[in-house]
Specification:
three-stranded antiparallel beta sheet, 3 helices, 3 strands, globular
Length: 61
């Protein structure tokens, strides 16, 4: 399972053609509209979960 922070998520999304700004990601986190976890004050994203979130029609393995 690959995990990343907000900065890493922005870079990952840019590389996959899904450009979202850091501020927009923080807004999605605040509104609980993007899957994430908090570890202390850090926001962590699981890349596999984000891929499924981006493509809700993909099958979960």
């Amino acid at each position: 399972m690959k995990r990343t922070d907000v900065k890493g998520l922005v870079e990952y999304l840019e590389n996959t053609g899904n450009k979202l700004s850091k501020s927009f990601i923080y807004k999605l986190v605040k509104e609980n509209k993007i899957p994430h976890k908090r570890v202390g004050s850090k926001i962590i994203f699981d890349i596999e979960t984000i891929e499924q979130w981006l493509d809700p029609e993909s099958e979960v393995s």
